[in-house]
Amino acid sequence: MNKVSRKAVAGVAMAAASLLVLSGCASPKPGAGFIECGVSDEGSWADKSFNESVMDGMEKAAEEFGVTLNSAESNSSEDFAPNLDAMVEAKCDVIFAVGFNLVDAVNAAAEANPTLNFVTIDGYSTGPTNLKPVGYAMEESSYLAGYAAAYYSTTKVVSVYGGIQIDAVTAFMDGFYYGAKAYETETGTPVTVLGWDPVAKTGDFIGGFAPNAPEGKTIAAGHLSAGADVLVPVGGDQFGALQEAIEESGFDAKMIGVDKNISVTSPEYAPITLTSIEKRMASAVYDIVKELAVDKVAFSGKEYRGTLANGGTDISVTEFIDADLTAKLAELKAGIIDGSIDPLS
Asked: In this prediction, what percent of the chain has a pLDDT beyond 70?
């Protein structure tokens, strides 16, 4: 029998209690009375990846605008539908469904509840006008990371592998590949990219997004043995497994983080992190809540797309990005923004 997570039940109680407290305030914040809700993908709200990024945005909105935050944590795919049902029961003003894996469940929930507002992070709408997709041009920032990887690499062999072969993952892999190849074209130095062929659409995949999956460590070990000295796993929190693979190989290699700046969220990885490809979901969530709860803008099912231009995605700065590379990355970023550089070619 499916069970709603304890966080979902607790969230409903918190929502009611918060509303009571707010009703007694003389000067409530501008979002008082608005209820924002979120349902996580598998993992947890503290996954140091995309679930946590969405929670960061909701928490920031709750703190600044006084909105009530309600959440449900999914431990498996069986939790998706009942957790969304719990948010519907809580009469949420907006419900965020985190991750591509929830796309079927959130489309069904939106169709069944046309008066409620839903947002799918990394998903898409099959038609409900009360469902807003949030997507990202991850090929843009990944292109910068691919160039940086090729620039930094000593062996000129770099690597990328994914959780599952879906568009939200392969966008990272495409951009990374073409960015590395841009370095090759510019310098005349051959660069090998292991793990993904964007033309054949074939590559190395873990098979899921379970944190630090042993399959990911096996892939990383194979890439390291083939000479890769900069590796990026596009599969949530795979950084512990990758760190182990690097240490066991005895190779002087670096990793590239995804979704969040892992040098900050997981400082233990900072000494081997070249950069991170940031999918700034917190900003999108915060902006959407602000529009609805504070600015009183009518909900729209129009897609939000994070780009380099609007700051929805970028790469992080670390000590390993020297002045010459910084200048080059700024040039590439400007070219992608003005359209003179295609990150998918």
From this structure: 92
**Torsion angle of the four alpha carbons 28, 34, 39, 43, in this order, in degrees rounded to the nearest 10:** -10
- Give CA 49 to chain center in angstroms: 6
DSSP class of residue 302?
P
Q: Domain ranges for the chain, please list them.
A: 6-136, 138-279+314-338
- What radius of gyration, in Å, describes the C-alpha atoms of the chain? 21
Contact 32, 25 (CB under 8 A): yes
Predicted local distance difference test score (pLDDT) of residue 27: 67
CATH 3.30.1200.10 fits 6-136, yes or no: no
Write phi, then psi, for 315 (nearest 5 degrees). Answer: -110, 155
Q: Are 161 and 205 in contact (CB under 8 A)?
A: yes
Greatest alpha-carbon pair distance for the chain in Å reads 69
Question: Within the chain, where are the H helices?
Answer: 6-23, 50-65, 80-89, 103-112, 138-152, 167-187, 214-225, 239-249, 262-265, 281-289, 323-338
Q: Average pLDDT over the chain, rounded to whole? A: 93
**Looking at residue 47, what is its pLDDT?**
85
In 3D, which of 54, 16, 50 has the Cα closest to residue 35?
16
The phi, psi pair for 41, rounded to 5°, reads -75, 180
Instruction: Say how far apart CA 330 and CA 231 lie, in whole Å.
Output: 22
Intrachain domains 6-136 and 138-279+314-338 with the same fold: yes
CATH topology of domain 138-279+314-338: Rossmann fold (3.40.50)
10 Å Cβ neighbour count for 191? Answer: 23
d(CA 240, CA 246): 10
